[in-house]
User: What shape does this take?
Amino acid sequence: MTAAPSSSAAQSPAALSSAPALPRNPHFDDHRVVWSDAYSGQYAPVAYDRQFDDQWRLFLEGREGFRDHTGVETSDEYIDDRIAELTGVRDHLWRKEWGVFAPLMARVTGRSARAARRGVGGRLWLEPKFPIDFLAGKRCLDAGCGAGRWTKTMKSLGARVKSIDVSRHGLASTRRFNDDVEECSLFDIPARPALHRAFDFTLCWGVVMCTHDPRAAFDAVASTVRPGGSLYLMVYAPTYHSSAQVLEWRARYHRECRTFEEKLAFAYSVADSPENAINLLDMLNTFYNWTIPEEVCRGWFEANGFRDITLLNRDEPNACGLHMVGTRPADATR
Assistant: This one.
């Protein structure tokens, strides 16, 4: 949203008429929060390069609430936690470094004592787990890499990773530990033949539901997976993110907050703790914030030729997202 006009500009009809108009918002204008494929093509794109950029900038600056958080941190301790969530293998990198002395060094360095603090932002409940060597040697795509925590996780498990995003600060963060980083939106993928059916494993985490057309975004991402490869999708479920409380917060954020400072202050004010501010800004700041039913996601996978479609967090209490993985058959022709 643009900043509030000055008092003189506010009195000028010409100034008001020259201000760029935002597209129609489905949540505030049409009372649509749960995505249906019937909505595909009805809404317009926005400046996706700016949607998440401030939170990645604040992460790089080390701002409270945007560091030491499961949703963004890329230090080895946090990456070990992500590896444990995916594979069930704890302290993978730490044990590679310290061997039999790993438990002792965890106590001496304070790593063990920091375990609870590393849970700010929430933990993943994924079953079945991936084998620890599942990604080793595979060509992987992090589609919408953000600050790069999943890029670094996949690389730490032996994958060769390409990272794409449109956020300037997200790309800068990811380039700290990955050389194969490219500015590219999900909607650019159809025009990039080099990305088509090029990857053994594509991960698209928390991106498609923040676009004007989640179905089109998913189809673009699905096109990157080669026969025999797999696609991991995370989207918001029609639970917490479509609740009355979240909808009220989002309406206030978009209608009342004009400057970024006001928006940031509001995110801190509604966060359960200052250390968790990034979760709130991430949820509030996007123009589109769709929630997507499991059956709709499953239909997307099936329409794109994927099989063995699995919901990985079915047993998660109070789940606010869906974690789904599907495999394209090795003999797939589409």
